[in-house]
Design goal:
heterodimer, B: Recoverin, domain 1, two-stranded antiparallel sheet, 1% strand
Chain lengths: 139, 536
């Protein structure tokens, strides 16, 4: 399971990336980066309704493995991308949505911190804890 | 009050060099505190039970901490933080009873018998001997007291600092203000960020007084070399601090005043407090859960079976926190989305709500419905400061009023403008008033009739209403009739004013007329005098 939060356009650099398991992490990073394009596409297509949870079901991208990529965009164009293993079929859409909601909540909490400059990488321990607990749930 | 450095209270540090690192002696305002021996020996009580509890906590503070040379030097630790001059006097008074509540993390577990006590024994020798026993490097400055517990003097200091930023103790310090304030402490930004995360439990981007005290305390602790905890210690939780402040522990005047302020303020801001307190429980809950896993926290809870009042606080807080956290476990975290709006709503809710300003003088529709609304709004704004806005839709009325008063549509605009432009339209209004007095009362009566009757004086004209398509609900009808009455009264008042103005104008014009007459007479006499000359 990989979790990634990327910043708003035009930079599209990640504010936070965390993944479990840690091997092949780079591949996950790459996947996340490519999925940003898809997310952007969807945003422009929608026009309105920015706080949207979209499902990027990539299906069999690689012959060896398949995974699902979920996306979520906030009103400030901050994108959350989550990659989960398709073998983990226990994950339902509702759970994904709730996970994104939690992420969004934690992200807004970080925003409330006056010492956090928007655009900085996220180093918040509370955020880390939340993400860890979420990922533990999934795996 | 302070310029470069964040003034920090006398926090008895274990190490001199680390303090020096954080501040410059130049910042000192010449206040040197003599930590009384009393503070040292107090902790001697807790030596025995400290030893075992220190094992689980051996934080990597040794690189930072260095054992003080001796109790004597320890006592004469120069304060390396800048002090506000205004506060140095205050602090000096408290110097003697000022108890340093520092204990290393190793002894976080054992608690705080000395929190409230001020024994005046001097036993540095005892201290030294006991310190020799300890296996910890930080020895002689052991305070069995919890470093995360705020002493009264510290609390007063924090409150004063809060006041310097925000005079209202029940209000917030905004994020930017707090950021500037805490940045002066010269702690690195990530640490400040973490401190903020710990202390702003409701994550609203602002600090209330207990949150501020917690944040300040963490800053001070950090400057004294303590590692920041992962979660907010119990003793720094806002509800704990609030509960602690409410109990009359000391005779400190400031403290009393604060406790007085707090209940009063709490009553006034029950909504905000309840909101905050209940929302705080959620992170508190998680914090408690995490803490429960930690040995030291358990030890903290267990090993405070002491006679001091703060211990009661802790139990009280733990119990209430646990209860509340259980109760609120399922509460959704809606605050983080609407935190600012809640804040704004809370702030707005405290002001006396006034009806929103309404466009009184102009209306887009020519229908008399709007005029009625405008009249109602006029009277409402005038008569009472707090009335619910008029019902948004008056569907029955347009039909009735339109059928009834089509002929008087031109009257309404004039009537409407009269109050605002009495002077300009005085003539027009006069005509209107003169022309329409007989119909006006009847029209008014008709209108009130259509909306139901409230006053007996209008009852004779009930027959008129029956002819009208009175298909209106009674509830808004009665409201409208009363509004209508008020509208009528306002109009009457305005007419009277206009009358007065016109009367004044009339008298002035009469005066001018007299003068002009006189001039005319004068001119005619001159003419008469001159005429015989010309005739000749």
């Amino acid at each position: 399971v990989l979790l990634s939060i990327t910043c708003s356009p035009p930079q599209n650099y990640p504010l936070y990336i965390r993944s479990i398991p840690t091997e092949n992490e780079l591949k996950f990073h790459y996947t996340v980066h490519t999925s940003l394009d898809v997310v952007d596409e969807k945003i422009s297509a929608m026009g309105k309704a920015l706080v949207d949870q979209r499902e990027l079901y990539l299906g069999l991208l690689y012959p060896t493995e398949d995974y699902k990529v979920y996306g979520y965009v906030t009103n400030s164009k901050v994108k959350f991308v989550m990659v989960v293993d398709s073998s983990n079929t226990a994950l339902r859409d509702n759970e994904i949505r709730s996970m994104f909601r939690k992420l969004h909540n934690s992200y807004t909490d970080i925003m409330c911190n006056p010492f956090y400059n928007p655009g900085d990488r996220i180093h918040s321990r509370a955020f880390d804890n939340m993400v860890n607990s979420m990922m533990m749930q999934v795996c | 009050s302070f310029n470069e450095e964040l003034p920090l209270p006398r926090f008895m540090a274990l190490k001199n060099d680390s303090e020096v690192r954080y501040g410059t002696p130049a910042e000192l305002h010449g206040v040197k505190f003599q930590v009384p021996h009393a503070t040292l020996e107090k902790n001697s009580y807790k030596r025995t039970d400290e030893g075992d509890k220190q094992e689980p906590k051996s934080p990597p503070m040794s690189p930072i901490c260095s054992p003080p040379a001796s109790p004597s030097t320890y006592q004469r630790v120069p304060l390396s933080y800048g002090y506000g001059k205004s506060r140095s006097g205050l602090e000096q008074q408290h110097a003697a009873p000022y108890e340093v509540r520092h204990s290393t993390h190793q002894q976080d577990g054992p608690s705080s018998g000395n929190y409230g006590a001020k024994p005046a024994l001097a036993s540095s020798a005892l201290n030294r001997s006991l310190s020799a026993e300890r296996e910890q490097p930080e020895s002689s400055a052991h305070y069995s007291d919890d470093p995360w517990r705020i002493t009264e003097e510290q609390r007063d200091y924090y409150i004063n600092q809060f006041r310097s930023l925000q005079p209202d103790l029940n209000s917030f310090i905004s994020g930017s203000v707090a950021r500037n304030f805490f940045t002066k402490s010269k702690l690195p930004i990530p640490e400040l960020s973490h401190i903020w995360e710990l202390s702003d439990v409701d994550c609203d981007g602002a600090l209330t007084l207990p949150e501020f005290c917690a944040a300040f305390h963490l800053v001070v602790a950090r400057k004294n070399g303590y590692q920041l905890p992962e979660t907010l210690p119990e003793t720094l939780l806002p509800e704990y601090l609030q509960a602690a402040s409410l109990k009359p522990v000391r005779d400190c005047a400031l403290f009393d005043s604060y406790s007085e302020l707090l209940p009063g303020g709490q009553q006034a801001r029950d909504f905000s407090r309840a909101e905050k307190a209940s929302a705080e429980e959620i992170p508190d809950n998680s914090a408690l859960l995490q803490d429960a896993k930690k040995e030291d926290k358990q030890a903290l809870k267990v090993s405070t079976p002491l006679k001091t009042i703060p211990k009661e606080f802790q139990h009280l807080t733990v119990k209430t926190a646990a209860q509340e956290s259980n109760a609120l476990r399922a509460r959704p975290r809606s605050r983080s989305y609407s935190s600012t709006s809640i804040e704004d709503a809370m702030k707005k809710g405290e002001e006396p709500p006034t009806p929103p300003p309404r466009p009184q003088k102009s209306h887009s529709r020519a229908s008399s419905l709007d005029l009625n609304k405008i009249f109602q709004q006029n009277t409402q704004a005038v008569r009472s400061g707090w009335l619910p806005p008029p019902p948004p839709a008056l569907p029955p009325r347009p039909s009735a009023s339109q059928t009834e008063q089509v002929s008087e549509v031109e009257l309404h605009p004039q009537m409407n403008r009269a109050p605002s432009q009495a002077e300009e339209n005085s003539s027009a209004k006069k005509e209107v008033v003169l022309a329409q007095p007989p119909s006006k009362p009847t029209r008014r009566k008709l209108r009130t009739e259509t909306q139901g009757l409230e006053t007996p004086e209008l009852s004779p004209t009930i027959n008129v209403t029956s002819s009208l398509p009175a298909v209106k609900p009674h509830l808004p009808v009665q409201k409208q009739s009363s509004k209508q009455k008020r509208a009528i009264q306002t109009a009457i008042r305005k007419n009277k004013e206009a009358n007065a103005v016109l009367a004044r104008l009339n008298s002035e014009l009469q005066q001018q007329l007299k003068e002009v007459h006189k001039e005319r007479i004068a001119l005619e006499t001159q003419l008469e005098q001159l005429r015989p000359v010309t005739v000749l």
